[in-house]
Recover the amino acids of this structure.
């Protein structure tokens, strides 16, 4: 009984209830108490803070757009192609191909730059004093206002000249230019003092402040004031009312890019009155709704704990090694997703354990076969048999050569300290191996090797070439038999090819290889280490994309291609 009470005291349901009471119920009751005592004061302070934050966000947005506009003007005024176009005689030079290319390039740049300013709602134009103009919007209104801005650009002598044009109307931006445009012009000087032309950039002021010029009586009023206290944008009657002192609550922020001032009149009297009218009804509504939600919360908490307990039980079983999927609750909520991911985790763990077990088994088998079958048993028998007969009938120098080759091969095969050798080592081993095979087949087989000296230091696994050469000898079924070994490098890959002039691959083997292109070395009976064992060792050591690939030769016989990563022995060390 004591344990049950202790579990109940520390249960998650009780913790939920305590947290709900301490961090939700108590703060709400405290806020209601403060609301009844100082509701007007709190409301005014919060409203002031909110309005200040809103104005700050609007100002930050405006400053960001103005800075982007300034960056665009910097790019255009310092652009070499723009200077070259403005130095020319005008649009008549478009017949010149380099000039035409510059015009096309400038048009593409300006099209990209307007999306940087305001998603194609802006206007960018380059106006030359030689009469040329290049603009993202070809409306004639833009050309008409250009002379009005020449003086502004020249007065600033290369600095940006900002202004607001409330009367500019441009085709293609209907419904988005209410209140006019914010404009910026800048002289393109180059190496002269008078300049070659100017950059003109304009965008709707509505997009910068996200509010129209026509404001309702109970809406916040915005005004844009120049650095000399001139009204640039806003309703004149509201501005006059503000200047006369009738509106005391005014918020102001300065635009850093232009030095202009943005003023905001919240007109809060109407909001305070509305607050007083709904205060009582809202208070009682909050109390009733709060009580209902408290009951719902308790029921929901009880229901929430059931799948959590089931999940905890399933986790305990998984910790003990049981990876079978439990019957957990589904759904699209967080608990359902948690159960779903837990089931996926169990599947992944089960698959991972199985994969690790299989990989460990394959590694042990590969290690065992590498130790057990380093040289083909039937090859040793045939080699010793050849030595016996040669010793009986000749007693010549060939016996010593065969024994020497056999000794070198046995020494090579018994070196277990390193599985990775160089291509030179493998080719030396093949030379000694083939010298013995030539005696066995009465010199009816020939071996030619053409490998560049720079490739001989490439890394590969020991006993990679011998099973392939042996396979060509056994299954070539043709005398005289010629085997050719070559190697080449492509980027970071090494390819070693072993071709013969034998009978080639049978149709049955080609069909079997075509049905499983990712693992083509699963055909026929091979002696020694075996091609399938070589394939497994290569992929286990270097990865799945590498290995052996067999096909019929161009003229006759079979061709085996070994695909390995290019890596020199000194690099790997």
């Amino acid at each position: 009984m004591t344990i049950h009470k202790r579990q109940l005291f520390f249960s998650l349901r009780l913790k939920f209830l305590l947290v709900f009471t301490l961090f939700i119920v108590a703060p709400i009751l405290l806020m209601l108490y403060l609301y009844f005592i100082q509701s007007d004061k709190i409301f005014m302070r919060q409203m002031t803070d909110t309005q200040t934050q809103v104005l700050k966000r609007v100002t930050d947005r405006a400053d960001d757009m103005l800075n982007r506009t300034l960056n665009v003007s910097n790019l255009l005024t310092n652009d070499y192609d723009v200077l070259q176009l403005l130095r020319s005689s005008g649009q008549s030079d478009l017949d010149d191909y380099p000039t035409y290319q510059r015009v096309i390039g400038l048009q593409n740049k300006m099209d990209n730059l307007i999306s940087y300013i305001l998603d194609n709602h802006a206007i960018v134009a380059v106006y030359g004093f030689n009469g040329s103009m290049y603009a993202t919007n070809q409306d004639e209104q833009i050309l008409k206002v250009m002379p009005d801005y020449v003086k502004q650009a020249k007065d600033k002598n290369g600095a940006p000249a900002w202004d607001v044009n409330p009367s500019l109307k441009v085709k293609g931006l209907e419904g988005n230019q209410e209140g006019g445009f914010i404009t910026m012009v800048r002289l393109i000087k180059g190496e002269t003092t008078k300049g070659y032309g100017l950059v003109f950039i304009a965008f709707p002021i509505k997009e910068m402040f996200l509010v129209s010029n026509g404001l309702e009586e109970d809406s916040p009023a915005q005004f844009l004031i120049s650095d000399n206290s001139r009204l640039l944008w806003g309703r004149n009657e509201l501005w006059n009312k503000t200047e006369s002192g009738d509106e005391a609550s005014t918020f102001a922020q300065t635009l850093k890019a232009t030095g202009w001032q943005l003023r905001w009149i919240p007109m809060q009297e109407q909001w305070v009155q509305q607050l007083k009218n709904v205060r009582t009804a809202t208070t009682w509504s909050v109390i009733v709704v709060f009580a209902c939600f408290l009951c719902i919360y308790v029921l929901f908490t009880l229901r929430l704990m059931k799948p959590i307990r089931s999940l905890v039980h399933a986790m305990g079983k998984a910790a003990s090694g049981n990876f079978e999927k439990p019957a957990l609750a589904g759904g699209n909520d967080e608990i359902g997703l948690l159960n779903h991911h837990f089931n996926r985790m169990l599947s992944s763990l089960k698959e991972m354990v199985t994969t690790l077990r299989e990989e460990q088994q394959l590694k042990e088998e590969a290690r065992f076969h590498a130790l057990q079958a380093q040289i083909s048993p039937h090859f040793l028998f045939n080699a010793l048999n050849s030595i016996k007969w040669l010793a009986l009938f000749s007693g010549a120098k060939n016996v010593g050569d065969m024994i020497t080759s056999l000794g070198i091969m046995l020494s090579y095969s018994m070196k277990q300290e390193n599985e990775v050798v160089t291509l030179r080592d493998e080719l030396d081993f093949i030379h000694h191996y083939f010298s013995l095979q030539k005696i066995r087949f009465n010199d009816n087989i020939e071996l030619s090797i053409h490998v560049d000296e720079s490739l001989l230091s490439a890394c590969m696994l020991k006993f990679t070439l011998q099973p392939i050469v042996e396979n060509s000898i056994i299954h070539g079924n043709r005398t005289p038999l010629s085997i050719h070994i070559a190697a080449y490098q492509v980027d970071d890959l090494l390819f070693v090819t072993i071709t013969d002039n034998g009978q080639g691959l049978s149709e049955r083997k080609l069909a079997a290889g075509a049905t499983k292109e990712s693992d083509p070395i699963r055909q026929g009976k091979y002696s020694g280490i075996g091609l399938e064992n070589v394939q497994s060792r290569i992929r286990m050591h270097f990865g799945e994309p590498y290995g052996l690939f067999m096909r019929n030769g161009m003229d006759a016989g079979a061709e085996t291609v070994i695909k390995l990563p290019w890596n020199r022995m000194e690099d790997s060390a």
